[in-house]
Design a protein that fits this description.
The complex is a heterotrimer of chains A (200), B (217) and C (106). Chain A has 200 residues and is of the alpha+beta class. Chain A folds into two domains: 94 residues, Nitrile hydratase, beta subunit (Cyclin A, domain 1, Orthogonal Bundle); 82 residues, Roll (SH3 type barrels). Chain A has seven helices and five strands. In chain A, helix 1 runs parallel beside helix 4. The longest helix of chain A has 15 residues. Chain B has a domain of 145 residues: Nitrile Hydratase, Chain A (Alpha-Beta Complex), CATH 3.90.330.10. Chain B starts with 23 loop residues before the first helix and ends in a 14-residue tail after the last helix. The N terminus of chain B is likely disordered. Chain C is mainly alpha-helical. Chain C contains five helices and two strands; from the N terminus they run αββαααα. The longest helix of chain C has 15 residues. The mean pLDDT of chain C is 89. Chains B and C meet through helix 1, helix 2, helix 5 and helix 8 of B and helix 1, strand 2, helix 2, helix 4 and helix 5 of C. Strand 4 of chain A pairs parallel with strand 3 of chain B.
Chain lengths: 200, 217, 106
Amino acid sequence: MGGMHGFGPVVTERDEPVFHARWEGVVRAIMQRTNGRYYNLDEFRFAIERMPPDDYLRAGYYERWLHAVETLLVEKSVITREELAQGRMESATPRALAPRASPPDIQPRFRPGDRVATRNIHPKHHTRMPRYARGKHGVIRRVYGPFPLPDTSAGGQATDWETCYAVEFESRELWGAGADKNDRVCVDLWESYLEPEEKR
Amino acid sequence: MSDAHHHHDHDHDHGGHHPEPPSEVEARALALESLLIDKGLITSDEVDRIISAYEHDIGPMIGARVVAHAWADPEYKARLLSDGPAALKELAIDYPASTRLVVVENEPGVHNAIVCTLCSCYPWAVLGLPPTWYKSAPYRSRMVSEPRSVLAEFGLSLTDGVAVNVWDSSSDVRYMVLPERPAGTEEWSEEQLASIVTRDCMIGVAKPRVPAESTTR
Amino acid sequence: MSIDRSVANLVGDAALPRKNGELVFQAPWEGRAFGLAVVLSDKGEYEWDEFRKNLVGKIAGGPEKTYYERWLSALENLLLEHGVVTEEELSKRAAEYAALERDPVF
């Protein structure tokens, strides 16, 4: 969503309740109980991303959560569409996912201060590189991880562990001359999203 | 919410809705509240408002305590900036192992703010649940591309020469802003310091303010 | 509405149950009991510290099993001591709720 146009002012609600309606709290509770058991967080996010664009924009925040949880639990055969529609269980509960193994020791390719270029990729699969950061030049600020690569983790496959970096971009690099020359945006990016910047 | 009414002729033929009787302890809680209302000591609205205020504000109090301690103790601040979860543990705050917390420091020349453009990742372990505006399309789309105009809508204007640094939480790292300590708070206790650190300061859309009428205590 | 930090920062065994920084209530009555205790203190029925001491005493020993059962019991004791309510009216009213003769406030 970063940098997309057509959205107006930020609307704040004074003293807003934590949940606007009880069902929102229920959805949140269901998500917290099933996350990490029947699906992982990347799959959850990808399920939301897969929503048809009109539905996504029209749906409220917790409606998207509900959609994702329903979709994933059906896809993982935890429940069936018929059970969802009828509100009644018909089969036994499957076993939970095995917990993730701990990350291996990996040598980071980049260090703080290194200049990098982000790859200009537009994959159909789930990825965590925001569109606005693709094909841009930045500087490594921090080194994290290794973290599971969301691109493969979202498909429920075996874990690809990669070093993750906080990469700093000048706002002018991202948005053009209209941006303030002093401003920066830092994004967390996985190593396979990055290339060393060619020496100029 | 209405006050309790004494129903002698409770009609049980309303389409099959039979409430479960309350447990013993629940019945006592109900009884206590309704007696206090009958005696004119409280209203149920007052109780509602308190519950909602605490649900809303209690999360950020954890972050506020951390900020106040960092302001009061420069060595703690250094540890906080270099290893967030370990520093939180020092204050007996449990941070979930599944995410990381990175605290970014505001300085006279740099103002930090956090956003998650891809979804709505938020440092809930120190700030509680995120406000609706944080999860909204306008905030998520505009904070990276026009942060100063978003900050202006929050009533925050920055002097020329101050750089805005926006952190987009696209991984499992969660960011929290350590605001600058305002002038005039040099003699304050940590509790007083924590009282001016709001959730919005730790997201980066506000700055802590010293109330006009405060005096040194 | 501002919140009282001495309430929010109860420590040790007396700490309010939280998950991920949020208050946790296992049932609506727990939230009501929480709210009642705070409102009455705000209105000056008792000092917050008096309630806190009662709560700590309940936690140290008593038949109650959960945090908010102890909380409610501490509140009842305080109000009985101060003569705000009597055990008789409390029991009678509770029996009415238990017998579904009254609609719950919440």
